[in-house]
Amino acid sequence: MSHPSLVTQDLTIRFGGHVAVNAVSCEFRPGELTVIVGPNGAGKTTYFNLISGQLPASAGKVLKDGVDLTSMAPSARAHHGIGRAFQLTNLFPQLTVLENIRLAVQAKSGDGRRLFRPAARMTELTAKAERYLEATRLQDVSHVAAATLPHGDQRKLEVALLMAMEPDIYMFDEPTAGMSLDHAPDVLDLIAEIKHDQSKTVLLVEHKMDVVRALADRIIVLHNGELLADGPPDEVMSSQIVRDVYLGKSSEVA
Ligand SMILES: Nc1ncnc2c1ncn2[C@@H]1O[C@H](COP(=O)(O)OP(=O)(O)OP(=O)(O)O)[C@@H](O)[C@H]1O
Protein backbone atom coordinates (compact mmCIF):
# COMPACT_ATOMS: atom_id res chain seq x y z
CA MET A 1 0.00 0.00 0.00
CA SER A 2 1.30 3.47 -0.90
CA HIS A 3 2.14 6.06 1.73
CA PRO A 4 -0.66 8.43 2.67
CA SER A 5 -0.43 11.77 0.87
CA LEU A 6 -2.83 13.47 3.25
CA VAL A 7 -3.35 12.80 6.92
CA THR A 8 -5.66 14.42 9.44
CA GLN A 9 -4.78 13.76 13.06
CA ASP A 10 -7.45 14.37 15.70
CA LEU A 11 -8.66 17.27 13.58
CA THR A 12 -11.15 19.34 15.56
CA ILE A 13 -13.01 22.62 15.34
CA ARG A 14 -15.30 24.15 17.91
CA PHE A 15 -17.74 26.96 17.28
CA GLY A 16 -18.46 28.19 20.78
CA GLY A 17 -19.68 25.12 22.61
CA HIS A 18 -20.46 23.20 19.40
CA VAL A 19 -17.84 20.72 18.17
CA ALA A 20 -18.47 20.63 14.39
CA VAL A 21 -15.52 18.30 13.63
CA ASN A 22 -14.42 16.15 16.50
CA ALA A 23 -10.98 14.52 16.56
CA VAL A 24 -11.16 13.11 13.02
CA SER A 25 -8.10 11.00 12.21
CA CYS A 26 -7.88 9.72 8.66
CA GLU A 27 -5.28 8.86 6.02
CA PHE A 28 -5.78 9.36 2.28
CA ARG A 29 -3.62 7.70 -0.37
CA PRO A 30 -2.70 8.42 -3.99
CA GLY A 31 -4.82 6.54 -6.51
CA GLU A 32 -7.75 6.39 -4.11
CA LEU A 33 -11.05 8.24 -4.29
CA THR A 34 -12.71 8.66 -0.91
CA VAL A 35 -16.28 9.85 -0.66
CA ILE A 36 -17.29 11.60 2.53
CA VAL A 37 -20.93 11.08 3.39
CA GLY A 38 -23.12 11.91 6.35
CA PRO A 39 -26.42 13.57 7.18
CA ASN A 40 -26.91 17.33 6.87
CA GLY A 41 -24.81 19.19 9.42
CA ALA A 42 -22.53 16.17 10.00
CA GLY A 43 -19.40 18.29 9.47
CA LYS A 44 -18.41 17.27 5.93
CA THR A 45 -17.89 20.75 4.50
CA THR A 46 -16.30 21.91 7.73
CA TYR A 47 -13.84 19.00 7.52
CA PHE A 48 -13.01 20.12 3.97
CA ASN A 49 -12.56 23.71 5.20
CA LEU A 50 -10.12 22.49 7.84
CA ILE A 51 -8.09 20.58 5.24
CA SER A 52 -7.97 23.39 2.68
CA GLY A 53 -7.41 26.05 5.35
CA GLN A 54 -10.62 28.07 5.05
CA LEU A 55 -11.14 27.41 8.76
CA PRO A 56 -8.45 27.20 11.46
CA ALA A 57 -8.36 24.00 13.50
CA SER A 58 -9.10 24.26 17.22
CA ALA A 59 -6.95 21.14 17.72
CA GLY A 60 -5.27 18.43 15.70
CA LYS A 61 -3.20 18.49 12.53
CA VAL A 62 -3.34 18.38 8.73
CA LEU A 63 -0.27 16.80 7.13
CA LYS A 64 0.56 16.63 3.43
CA ASP A 65 3.38 14.21 2.60
CA GLY A 66 4.52 14.62 6.18
CA VAL A 67 4.55 18.44 6.06
CA ASP A 68 2.42 20.08 8.74
CA LEU A 69 -0.01 22.44 6.99
CA THR A 70 -2.14 23.14 10.04
CA SER A 71 -1.15 26.76 10.53
CA MET A 72 -0.84 27.59 6.82
CA ALA A 73 -3.18 29.86 4.84
CA PRO A 74 -5.22 28.32 2.00
CA SER A 75 -2.83 29.73 -0.64
CA ALA A 76 0.18 28.09 1.04
CA ARG A 77 -1.70 24.80 1.25
CA ALA A 78 -2.52 25.10 -2.47
CA HIS A 79 1.21 25.57 -3.07
CA HIS A 80 1.74 22.28 -1.23
CA GLY A 81 -0.64 20.50 -3.59
CA ILE A 82 -4.05 20.84 -1.96
CA GLY A 83 -6.54 21.65 -4.72
CA ARG A 84 -10.11 22.53 -3.94
CA ALA A 85 -12.57 23.34 -6.70
CA PHE A 86 -14.09 26.42 -5.13
CA GLN A 87 -10.72 28.05 -4.50
CA LEU A 88 -11.04 29.28 -8.05
CA THR A 89 -11.66 32.88 -7.24
CA ASN A 90 -8.98 33.51 -9.85
CA LEU A 91 -11.52 33.38 -12.66
CA PHE A 92 -11.54 36.34 -15.05
CA PRO A 93 -15.18 36.57 -16.14
CA GLN A 94 -14.57 38.75 -19.21
CA LEU A 95 -11.78 36.55 -20.58
CA THR A 96 -12.46 33.48 -22.66
CA VAL A 97 -12.37 29.94 -21.37
CA LEU A 98 -9.02 29.28 -23.06
CA GLU A 99 -7.50 32.53 -21.75
CA ASN A 100 -8.59 31.67 -18.23
CA ILE A 101 -7.04 28.21 -18.44
CA ARG A 102 -3.86 29.63 -19.97
CA LEU A 103 -3.54 32.14 -17.12
CA ALA A 104 -3.90 29.30 -14.62
CA VAL A 105 -1.20 27.35 -16.47
CA GLN A 106 1.01 30.47 -16.43
CA ALA A 107 0.44 31.00 -12.73
CA LYS A 108 1.43 27.40 -12.03
CA SER A 109 4.50 27.63 -14.27
CA GLY A 110 5.76 30.57 -12.24
CA ASP A 111 5.32 32.98 -15.15
CA GLY A 112 2.90 35.17 -13.25
CA ARG A 113 -0.43 36.15 -14.69
CA ARG A 114 0.49 38.74 -17.34
CA LEU A 115 -1.46 38.26 -20.52
CA PHE A 116 1.45 39.08 -22.83
CA ARG A 117 4.52 36.87 -23.12
CA PRO A 118 7.14 36.15 -25.77
CA ALA A 119 5.52 34.27 -28.67
CA ALA A 120 7.33 30.94 -28.20
CA ARG A 121 6.47 30.83 -24.51
CA MET A 122 2.87 31.73 -25.29
CA THR A 123 2.64 28.84 -27.76
CA GLU A 124 3.94 26.42 -25.15
CA LEU A 125 1.51 27.68 -22.48
CA THR A 126 -1.37 27.66 -24.94
CA ALA A 127 -0.61 24.07 -25.97
CA LYS A 128 -0.74 23.03 -22.34
CA ALA A 129 -3.95 24.98 -21.77
CA GLU A 130 -5.49 23.29 -24.80
CA ARG A 131 -4.76 19.91 -23.29
CA TYR A 132 -6.80 20.84 -20.19
CA LEU A 133 -9.47 22.31 -22.46
CA GLU A 134 -9.73 18.97 -24.26
CA ALA A 135 -9.56 16.94 -21.07
CA THR A 136 -12.55 18.86 -19.75
CA ARG A 137 -14.36 18.76 -23.11
CA LEU A 138 -14.60 22.53 -23.34
CA GLN A 139 -13.21 22.90 -26.88
CA ASP A 140 -16.53 24.05 -28.29
CA VAL A 141 -16.66 27.00 -25.91
CA SER A 142 -12.95 27.84 -25.86
CA HIS A 143 -13.57 31.38 -27.16
CA VAL A 144 -16.62 32.11 -25.06
CA ALA A 145 -16.29 34.61 -22.18
CA ALA A 146 -16.23 32.69 -18.88
CA ALA A 147 -19.03 34.86 -17.47
CA THR A 148 -21.49 33.80 -20.15
CA LEU A 149 -20.95 30.03 -19.86
CA PRO A 150 -23.88 27.86 -18.86
CA HIS A 151 -23.65 26.54 -15.30
CA GLY A 152 -22.53 23.04 -16.36
CA ASP A 153 -19.64 24.41 -18.42
CA GLN A 154 -18.63 26.73 -15.59
CA ARG A 155 -18.28 23.69 -13.33
CA LYS A 156 -16.13 22.03 -16.00
CA LEU A 157 -14.03 25.17 -16.22
CA GLU A 158 -13.51 25.00 -12.47
CA VAL A 159 -12.17 21.48 -12.94
CA ALA A 160 -9.94 22.63 -15.83
CA LEU A 161 -8.49 25.43 -13.69
CA LEU A 162 -7.98 23.01 -10.85
CA MET A 163 -6.18 20.58 -13.18
CA ALA A 164 -3.98 23.44 -14.41
CA MET A 165 -2.80 23.92 -10.83
CA GLU A 166 -1.59 20.30 -10.91
CA PRO A 167 -2.57 19.53 -7.33
CA ASP A 168 -1.82 16.17 -5.69
CA ILE A 169 -5.04 16.29 -3.70
CA TYR A 170 -8.31 17.05 -5.49
CA MET A 171 -11.23 18.07 -3.28
CA PHE A 172 -14.74 18.28 -4.69
CA ASP A 173 -17.74 19.36 -2.63
CA GLU A 174 -20.90 18.14 -4.37
CA PRO A 175 -19.48 18.72 -7.85
CA THR A 176 -22.74 18.11 -9.67
CA ALA A 177 -24.94 20.22 -7.38
CA GLY A 178 -27.30 22.36 -9.42
CA MET A 179 -26.31 20.67 -12.67
CA SER A 180 -28.65 19.39 -15.31
CA LEU A 181 -28.72 15.64 -15.88
CA ASP A 182 -27.02 15.96 -19.26
CA HIS A 183 -24.02 17.87 -17.83
CA ALA A 184 -23.46 15.86 -14.65
CA PRO A 185 -22.01 12.74 -16.37
CA ASP A 186 -19.28 14.86 -18.02
CA VAL A 187 -18.07 16.16 -14.67
CA LEU A 188 -18.27 12.71 -13.10
CA ASP A 189 -16.28 11.24 -16.01
CA LEU A 190 -13.65 13.91 -15.43
CA ILE A 191 -13.39 13.01 -11.76
CA ALA A 192 -13.14 9.33 -12.70
CA GLU A 193 -10.26 10.16 -15.05
CA ILE A 194 -8.46 12.11 -12.34
CA LYS A 195 -8.86 9.16 -9.99
CA HIS A 196 -7.29 6.84 -12.55
CA ASP A 197 -4.12 8.89 -12.34
CA GLN A 198 -2.47 6.85 -9.62
CA SER A 199 -0.51 9.85 -8.35
CA LYS A 200 -3.64 11.81 -7.38
CA THR A 201 -5.68 11.57 -4.20
CA VAL A 202 -9.34 12.49 -4.58
CA LEU A 203 -11.76 13.52 -1.81
CA LEU A 204 -15.40 14.01 -2.64
CA VAL A 205 -18.30 15.18 -0.50
CA GLU A 206 -21.44 13.78 -2.03
CA HIS A 207 -25.07 13.15 -1.11
CA LYS A 208 -26.18 11.42 -4.29
CA MET A 209 -25.83 7.70 -3.73
CA ASP A 210 -25.62 6.85 -7.44
CA VAL A 211 -22.57 9.13 -7.66
CA VAL A 212 -21.09 7.58 -4.52
CA ARG A 213 -21.55 4.08 -5.92
CA ALA A 214 -20.07 5.02 -9.29
CA LEU A 215 -16.90 6.64 -7.97
CA ALA A 216 -16.01 5.59 -4.44
CA ASP A 217 -13.05 3.34 -3.68
CA ARG A 218 -13.70 4.03 -0.04
CA ILE A 219 -16.34 5.78 2.02
CA ILE A 220 -15.97 7.62 5.27
CA VAL A 221 -19.05 8.58 7.24
CA LEU A 222 -19.20 11.63 9.46
CA HIS A 223 -21.93 12.03 12.03
CA ASN A 224 -22.15 14.85 14.56
CA GLY A 225 -18.58 15.78 13.60
CA GLU A 226 -17.21 12.33 14.40
CA LEU A 227 -15.82 9.65 12.12
CA LEU A 228 -18.47 6.98 12.30
CA ALA A 229 -17.28 4.52 9.66
CA ASP A 230 -14.43 4.11 7.19
CA GLY A 231 -14.00 1.34 4.65
CA PRO A 232 -14.93 -0.17 1.28
CA PRO A 233 -18.27 1.11 -0.08
CA ASP A 234 -20.24 -2.14 0.23
CA GLU A 235 -19.07 -2.78 3.76
CA VAL A 236 -19.74 0.78 4.96
CA MET A 237 -23.11 1.20 3.30
CA SER A 238 -24.41 -2.10 4.58
CA SER A 239 -23.25 -1.59 8.17
CA GLN A 240 -25.99 -1.30 10.75
CA ILE A 241 -24.53 1.80 12.38
CA VAL A 242 -24.57 3.69 9.08
CA ARG A 243 -28.13 2.57 8.37
CA ASP A 244 -29.13 3.80 11.83
CA VAL A 245 -27.64 7.22 11.14
CA TYR A 246 -29.57 7.44 7.90
CA LEU A 247 -32.77 6.16 9.52
CA GLY A 248 -35.62 7.63 7.60
CA LYS A 249 -33.39 7.96 4.58
CA SER A 250 -32.66 4.26 4.26
CA SER A 251 -33.76 4.18 0.63
CA GLU A 252 -30.87 6.55 -0.21
CA VAL A 253 -28.22 4.27 1.21
CA ALA A 254 -29.83 0.96 0.38
N1 LIG B 1 -18.65 29.17 10.61
C1 LIG B 1 -19.47 28.46 11.40
N2 LIG B 1 -19.92 28.97 12.57
C2 LIG B 1 -20.73 28.25 13.39
N3 LIG B 1 -21.16 27.00 13.11
C3 LIG B 1 -20.76 26.46 11.96
C4 LIG B 1 -19.89 27.14 11.04
N4 LIG B 1 -19.65 26.31 9.97
C5 LIG B 1 -20.34 25.19 10.22
N5 LIG B 1 -20.99 25.26 11.40
C6 LIG B 1 -21.80 24.20 12.00
O1 LIG B 1 -21.05 23.00 11.96
C7 LIG B 1 -21.90 21.90 11.70
C8 LIG B 1 -21.40 21.15 10.48
O2 LIG B 1 -21.70 21.90 9.30
P1 LIG B 1 -21.24 21.43 7.87
O3 LIG B 1 -21.68 22.49 6.91
O4 LIG B 1 -19.82 21.08 7.88
O5 LIG B 1 -22.11 20.13 7.65
P2 LIG B 1 -22.25 19.25 6.34
O6 LIG B 1 -22.06 17.84 6.76
O7 LIG B 1 -21.36 19.76 5.26
O8 LIG B 1 -23.78 19.51 5.98
P3 LIG B 1 -24.54 19.57 4.57
O9 LIG B 1 -24.59 18.17 4.06
O10 LIG B 1 -25.88 20.08 4.95
O11 LIG B 1 -23.77 20.51 3.68
C9 LIG B 1 -23.31 22.46 11.55
O12 LIG B 1 -23.97 22.32 12.80
C10 LIG B 1 -23.07 23.91 11.22
O13 LIG B 1 -24.14 24.70 11.64
From TrEMBL:
An example Gene Ontology CC term for this record: plasma membrane
Domain of life: Bacteria
Protein name, as recorded: Glutamine transport ATP-binding protein GlnQ
Key words, A-Z: ATP-binding, Nucleotide-binding, Transport
InterPro entries according to UniProt: AAA+_ATPase, ABC_AA/LPS_Transport, ABC_transporter-like_ATP-bd, BCA_ABC_TP_C, P-loop_NTPase
Entry-linked CDD domains: ABC_Mj1267_LivG_branched
PROSITE patterns xref list: ABC_TRANSPORTER_2
Boundaries of every ABC transporter domain copy: 6-249
Presence of the UniProt keyword Transport in the record: yes
MF (Gene Ontology): ATP binding; ATP hydrolysis activity
Keyword Lyase (UniProt): no
Transmembrane regions listed in the UniProt entry: none
